[in-house]
Amino acid sequence: MEKIVKDISVGKGTSIEQLSKEFLGSGGFVAKKVGVATDILGEMFQGSKLNILSFPACIVSTGTRGLLKDLVKSKKFQMVMTTCGTLDHDFARIWKPYLHGSFEDSDAELHREKKHRLGNIRIPEDSYGGIIEEKLQPMLEDICKEKKSLATYEFVWELGKRLENEPKKEESIIYWCWKNKIPMIIPGITDGAFGLQLLMFMQDHDFTVDVWKDEKFLLGKMFDKQKIGALMIGGGISKHHVIWWAQFGEGLDYAVYITTAPEWDGSLSGARTREGISWGKVNENARHITVEGDATVLLPLITGPFL
C-alpha cells in the first residue's frame, strides 16, 4: 500500500528523534533520506555484530569531531576506518586550537600569516606540524622501547594510552578508540603529518607501522560469517577499504552513506550504495541508503537519536 506524504510539524521542543520521524514521513527529497538513514542505523545497532564507522580527516578539523568521538565513546561502532589526517587533526587539537575562517579568505595572506586553510577552518602552523612533532616524537621513543612493529590500530591504541594524563584527552577520538579497544584502521598511514613523523623516526630506529598486520586482522574479521553494518562518510580509501573487505563477508547487511560527490564521473566517492551490490560489497538483501549532502549538517541529524 502506498504511503501518504505527511507535512512536517516541528516546534521549540522538537527532539532530534522526533525530527527524524517527521523527515521519514515527509516523503520528499533528502529529508526523507535522512529519516530512512536513521531508521536503518537503529536496526543496524540492534541486528549487526560488526558495525564500522568510516570517515575522511577533513571533518575532524571541525566541531563534527565531537560527534565522531561520541559515537566511539558510546561503543556504537566496533571498528573505525579513516585516513592519516584524522590522527593529525585529532592529536593536534588536544593541545592547540583551530580557528574559524571563511571560504573567501585570502590564501596568499594566510600563507604570509603562517596559517593553513581547510575549507572555512583556519589552522595556525603551530597548531599542526609543530605541535604534532613536539608531542609525537617522545611518544614514539617510549613506544619503541616496548614494541618494534605495530598494526595501525595497535599504534593508535599505544597513542591513546599515552594520552591518559592529558586534560583534554576525553575530547579525542584516538583516546576513546584505545579506552574502548576499538580498532582504528588507517590504510593510508603515510599520507599526512603523522606519516612524515613516522618516516623521520624510522630513519634511525628499529621501528615500523605495518599495514599488512591490519590486513591480516581484517582477514580474520571479514571472513567470519556475521552481519556487518557501516556508516560511511565521504569517499576515498576509508570508504573503499570498508566495502572491499565486506565483500568477503557476503557484503554489508546495513549501509548508510553520506556523500557530496556525483556518480556520473565513475568515482568511488560518488558511487551509490546500490553500485556496491554488483560487486558483492553490499548484500542484495541489505538495507541501504545514500544521503547526498554535507556530513557536518547531516551527521547530527542521522546519529543524534542514538547519542
What is the gist of this entry?
Helix content is 45%, strand content 16%. The chain has 307 residues and is of the alpha/beta class.
Features:
single chain; 307 residues; alpha/beta; Deoxyhypusine Synthase; six-stranded parallel β-sheet; three-stranded antiparallel β-sheet; 11 strands; globular
Describe this structure in words.
The protein has 307 residues and is of the alpha/beta class. The chain has a single domain, classed as Deoxyhypusine Synthase. 45% of the residues lie in helices and 16% in strands. The chain has a 6-stranded parallel beta sheet with strand order 7-2-1-9-10-11, with helices on both faces. Strands 3-5-4 form a 3-stranded antiparallel beta sheet. Helix 6 crosses helix 9.
Secondary-structure topology with pairs:
Blueprint: H1 16-26, H2 29-47, E1 50-54, H3 64-73, E2 79-81, H4 84-92, E3 99-100, H5 107-112, E4 115-118, E5 121-124, H6 129-146, E6 149-150, H7 152-161, H8 173-179, E7 184-185, H9 193-202, E8 208-209, H10 211-222, E9 228-233, H11 236-246, E10 252-259, H12 273-279, E11 282-292, H13 295-303
Parallel strand pairs: 1-2, 1-9, 2-7, 6-8, 9-10, 10-11
Antiparallel strand pairs: 3-5, 4-5
Helix pairs in contact: 1-2, 2-13, 3-8, 6-9, 7-8
